[in-house]
């Protein structure tokens, strides 16, 4: 009995510790975010630093974004046609493809791919820079690592994400078009005109754009913080990389729900 | 990787992204058609607007001539006040008739304008006097049943 | 006393409850090369971080050029750090920049010199460490000794008044070690700087430094010139200098009685 009690006790203790740890981490993440914003002025005055990072986060993610967008669009076209033609409204396929991409799939899938492609790279890079004392060395050279290393990567992520998401939606729609019009034989005019009649610029396109901006902030911040916070060991960096993917995905899906519920009401 | 090459790629990337966004705005979204250019606002009162929503189209002879700007409840008349933004290019006579229609059986609701014969035209902040409410399905069905019932009771006598 | 560029006064520091330093006093005279020696884990590297202001002492203070390091704000601290150069244990070169860009980094960050002048300065620094020919290589293409030398060129890029070396000999072959010893001495004298070398390589250090501090148990256990210390009869110094396995510095980490530990066996 006493053994059971002590087991229960240590379990509670463990949960408590973890909870406190999580709050502690959340606090330091908030502080890290605040510092990044404070130091942003310094690094935005040197656009070359940001451009270089846009290359690594945005340009190098282009291929995966374009290819996945194309496939996602084609699948939407096939599935959508299959369902819609049962109700005799296969012309509405343009609406279906465009709305699902612009509102949800474009921003969300882009953010998930971004977390996997660019987020992990950022985390691993910063974690290793920390492990090999590069960040310390920078500090000792009177250069703030947050201004020199973190802030440019943050802004590169924030700028790249909406561009990638827009590209994803556009290419996805083209993929859907390819399946629906030349392959299945839906009328091309109906495809575009129905789409234009029901996709609203402010309600759909702009809201999707806002979503992807928020996802950009979240993904970049999580990747940077996990890297910066990683224990300076091989094990620590690999765990941090995993956490980047897990936390970014959860954050993106959670934020998506919150934003969608605000946007729809 | 030298700097000019990076700059070039980032430039291409930014151009692609912006082009995609513009494409979404122009080709996919209805930015072009929802921009009415210069507009004038008129209001119309309805007993019941049904499922009409802000930004719903205002059509005349099937052509979009404006959009619903806002819908409010008037606590004096207990009616719904619907503000319409109409394109300046299309003036309507004072005795224009405003109906709430449904596109298809269960589709979106929109406002249809039928021009009257008045010499004077509607001006900014004018009120459309003749309106017809949205058709509420339940009401229609109950009316139909009621009339059927009264018909059958008449024939019984 | 003003001739000491760095002074450590009754310094205490620790993580959590465990104290790493318990009242350390040291002074580093201008123009000298001073070594801080001690066993692994005796907090030598931490001392350098305290001097650089990356850590705050629990008690006592570090003065650099008369100013108390931990009382400085961000801006003042940055100003102070520009007087310092530090060579990190594994070099800590920026792996995404070439050798040339690594050495140019502090110049680009802190000066607005034209590119031509930066080029000249970088070439001079690289020439001083004998690696002018390696300027276009990436850090991953360098050997350990070369990386250390590039890092040294970077540390002295802005002609600092204080150069700190964290284990400059760790993991180097004897030839590279000799090269680094030579470089530390030469750069120190050429720049008129003060060097602080943290190391546990007795033989290498004794060959070129002016003064040595021994740190043990969070305190200065012994100090003096290399000559004095070689002849020292203090048991700790004797053990360290001659590399004996057991002595005042025990072979065993503090543990309960061995016999008792083994017998306790299963009821842990």
Helix content of chain A: over 70%
Please give the count of helices of chain A: 9
- Kindly report the greatest chain-chain contact and the residue count on each side: A-B, 32 and 25 residues
Number of domains of chain A: 1
How confident overall, as mean pLDDT of chain B?
A: 82
Structure classification of chain A: mainly alpha
Largest sheet data of chain A:
none
| Low confidence ranges of chain A | none
What does this entry look like structurally?
With 265 residues, chain A is mostly helical. Chain A has 9 helices and no strands. The radius of gyration of chain A is 22 Å and the shape is globular. The mean pLDDT of chain A is 90. Chain B is of the alpha/beta class and 157 residues long. Helices cover 32% and strands 32% of the residues of chain B. Chain B has helices at residues 3-28, 31-34, 137-156; strands spanning 39-46, 57-60, 63-74, 79-87, 97-102, 109-114, 126-128, 130-132. Chain B has an 8-stranded mixed sheet with strand order 7-1-4-3-2-6-5-8, with no helix packed on it. The model of chain B has no long low-confidence stretch (mean pLDDT 82). Chain C has one domain: P-loop containing nucleotide triphosphate hydrolases (Rossmann fold, 3-Layer(aba) Sandwich). Chain C is 37% helix and 24% strand. The interface between A and B is medium-sized, with 32 and 25 residues.
């Amino acid at each position: 009995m006493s053994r059971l009690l002590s087991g229960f006790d240590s379990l509670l203790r463990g949960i408590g510790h973890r909870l406190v740890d999580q709050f502690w981490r959340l606090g330091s993440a908030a502080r890290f975010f605040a510092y990044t914003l404070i130091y942003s002025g310094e690094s935005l005055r040197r656009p070359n630093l940001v451009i270089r990072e846009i290359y690594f986060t945005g340009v190098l993610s282009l291929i995966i974004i374009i290819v996945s967008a194309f496939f996602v669009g084609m699948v939407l076209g096939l599935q959508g046609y299959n369902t819609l033609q049962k109700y005799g409204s296969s012309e509405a396929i343009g609406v279906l493809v465009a709305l699902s991409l612009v509102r949800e799939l474009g921003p969300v899938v882009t953010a998930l791919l971004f977390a996997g492609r660019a987020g992990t790279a950022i985390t691993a890079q910063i974690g290793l820079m920390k492990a090999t004392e590069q960040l310390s060395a920078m500090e000792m050279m009177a250069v703030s690592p947050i201004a020199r290393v973190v802030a440019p990567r943050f802004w590169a992520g924030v700028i790249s994400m909406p561009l990638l998401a827009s590209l994803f939606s556009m290419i996805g729609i083209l993929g859907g078009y390819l399946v629906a019009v030349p392959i299945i034989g839906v009328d091309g005019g109906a495809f575009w005109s129905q789409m234009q009649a029901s996709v609203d610029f402010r309600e759909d396109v702009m809201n999707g754009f806002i979503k992807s901006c928020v996802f950009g902030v979240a993904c970049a911040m999580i990747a940077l913080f996990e890297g910066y916070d990683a224990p300076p060991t091989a094990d620590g960096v690999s765990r941090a990389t995993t956490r980047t993917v897990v936390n970014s995905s959860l954050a993106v899906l959670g934020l998506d729900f919150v934003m969608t519920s605000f946007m729809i009401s | 990787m030298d700097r000019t090459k990076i700059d070039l790629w980032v430039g291409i990337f930014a151009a692609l992204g912006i082009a995609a966004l513009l494409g979404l705005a122009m080709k996919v979204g209805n930015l072009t058609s929802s921009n009415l250019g210069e507009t004038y606002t008129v209001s119309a009162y309805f007993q019941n607007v049904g499922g009409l929503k802000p930004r719903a189209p205002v059509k005349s002879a099937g052509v979009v001539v404006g959009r619903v700007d806002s819908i409010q409840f008037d606590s004096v008349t207990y009616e719904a006040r619907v503000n319409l933004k109409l394109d300046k290019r299309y003036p309507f006579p004072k005795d224009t008739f405003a109906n709430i229609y449904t596109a298809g059986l269960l589709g979106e609701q929109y406002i249809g304008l039928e021009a009257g014969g008045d010499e004077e035209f509607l001006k900014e902040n004018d009120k459309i006097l003749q309106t017809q409410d949205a058709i509420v399905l339940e009401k229609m069905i109950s009316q139909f049943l009621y009339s059927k019932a009264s018909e059958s009771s008449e024939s019984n006598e | 006393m003003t001739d000491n560029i760095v002074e450590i006064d009754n310094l205490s520091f620790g993580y959590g409850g465990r104290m790493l330093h318990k009242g350390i006093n040291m002074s580093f005279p201008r123009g000298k090369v001073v070594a801080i020696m001690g066993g692994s884990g005796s907090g030598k590297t931490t001392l350098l971080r305290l001097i650089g202001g990356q850590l705050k002492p629990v008690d006592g203070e570090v003065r650099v050029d008369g100013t108390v390091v931990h009382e400085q704000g961000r801006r003042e601290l940055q100003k102070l750090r520009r007087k310092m150069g530090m060579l990190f244990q594994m070099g800590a070169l920026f792996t995404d920049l070439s050798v040339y860009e690594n050495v140019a980094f502090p110049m680009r960050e802190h000066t607005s010199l034209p590119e031509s002048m930066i080029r000249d300065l970088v070439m001079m620094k690289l020439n001083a460490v004998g690696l002018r020919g390696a300027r276009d290589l990436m850090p991953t293409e360098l050997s350990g000794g070369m990386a250390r030398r590039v890092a040294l060129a970077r540390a002295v890029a802005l002609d600092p008044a204080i150069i700190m070396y964290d284990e400059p000999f760790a993991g180097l072959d004897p030839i590279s070690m000799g090269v680094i010893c030579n470089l530390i001495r030469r750069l120190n004298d050429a720049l008129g700087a003060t060097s602080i070398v943290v190391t546990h390589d007795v033989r290498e250090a004794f060959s070129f430094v002016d003064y040595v501090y021994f740190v043990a148990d969070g305190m200065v256990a012994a100090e003096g010139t290399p000559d004095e210390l070689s002849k020292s009869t203090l048991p700790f110094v004797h053990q360290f200098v001659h590399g004996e396995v057991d002595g005042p510095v025990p072979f065993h980490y503090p543990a309960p009685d061995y016999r008792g530990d083994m017998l306790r066996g299963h009821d842990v």
